[in-house]
Known about the structure:
Elements: H1 14-22, H2 35-42, H3 45-56, H4 59-62, H5 72-94, H6 109-140, H7 142-183, H8 188-223
Amino acid sequence: MRHGSPSPGVVGSELIRLLAGLARAPAAGAPAPVFAERLGGWLDWTGAIALAGALAATPAGAAAAAPPAQPASELAEAERACERAHAALAATIAGGALAQRPADADDFAPYRRHARACQQAMHDGVAVLRQRLRDALARHSARGARLAAIDAVLDRGLAARERFLLERIVTQLQAHHERLRRAADAGWQAAYTAEMQRVLRAELAHRMGPARGLLDALRQMETR
């Protein structure tokens, strides 16, 4: 079963929609550059060379050395690992400052600590899961090994860009907290807690996207 946004891509994603709502800005504007153009601006030259090398790798050349396909039990375990990771991270999001609202409603610090802790947990948990899925693909076939190599290059090459963008989420959450605090409408703290949880769950769906893509690839290879 999938959780969060069914399509955690960049354009039109649940995370983008929620953040645009917090900023009181429209979610869509001028046509965005195509993905290849964006990718060229995000990767440095070493990342671009590494990606070119992974894309140029010939699966047929490695077929003779590739181990036999793994049993279906590995796919089932990969699916369970994905669901366990999601469940654990969702529980982390629901805890902390969101489970017990701070006594001082005006103080954003507890929310900031919780959001940062959630982001670190998501970063670490998804990294472990993504590597596990890469390993499973690499054991499956030469095609799987090539896909795993491409994903690893993109993961390393885009890490700094993604970290920069996702860190801005906490800034937007703080600005929204301040707006609601100043308005002082009845029940604003409960409304803010619910909105913050929705944003963090959407971030989790976004971060899980590459792992779920690898799992889908493994599933397709196993069922062919």
